Amino acid sequence: MAITSNHVTGFLVGLGVAAAGYYAYTQNRAKIDTFLRSQGIRVPERHPTDAGSLSFEELVAEKERLEDLIAEREYEREAKTAPEPK
After folding, report:
1. Are 37 and 43 in contact (CB under 8 A)?
2. Average pLDDT score over residue span 51-58
3. Residues 6+ apart with CB under 8 A from 54
4. pLDDT of residue 49 exceeding 70
5. Which of 14, 20, 46, 81 has a CA 20 to 30 Å removed from the CA of 72?
6. How far does CA 76 lie from the centroid of its chain?
């Protein structure tokens, strides 16, 4: 089956619709995320950029998350540099 102009047109239209949908989502992210959560869809929370606005519990949770990430990266680095057993 050869690729025809209908295939190319469909691809470009789909790409345009996806770009428009993404733009609309980014402009209304808070409203859309709230709606999705109310429908039972799990949407990950975005981390606030200002750590000063976090509660104590949120700061502790963020600290633990960062410590876990640091430990994972250290393990990966050590695994890459460790000599392979013979």
Report:
1. yes
2. 83
3. 48, 62
4. no
5. 46
6. 21
Distance CA 58, CA 48 (A): 11
Does residue 40 sit in the same domain as residue 62? no
Q: Within this chain, do residues 27 and 52 fall inside the same structural domain, yes or no?
A: no
Residue-number span of the structural domain to which 36 is assigned: 1-46
CA distances from 37 to 6, 18, 23, 55, 74 (A): 38, 22, 20, 22, 35
State pLDDT tens for residues 1-47: 899 999 999 999 999 999 999 999 999 998 999 899 999 998 887 76
- DSSP letter at 62? H
Is the pLDDT assigned to residue 66 strictly greater than 70? yes
Q: Determine contact, residues 43/33, Cβ cutoff 8 Å.
A: yes
State how many domains the chain has: 2
- The pTM for the full model equals 0.47
- Can you tell me the distance from the alpha carbon of 72 to that of 78, in angstroms, rounded to the nearest whole number? 10
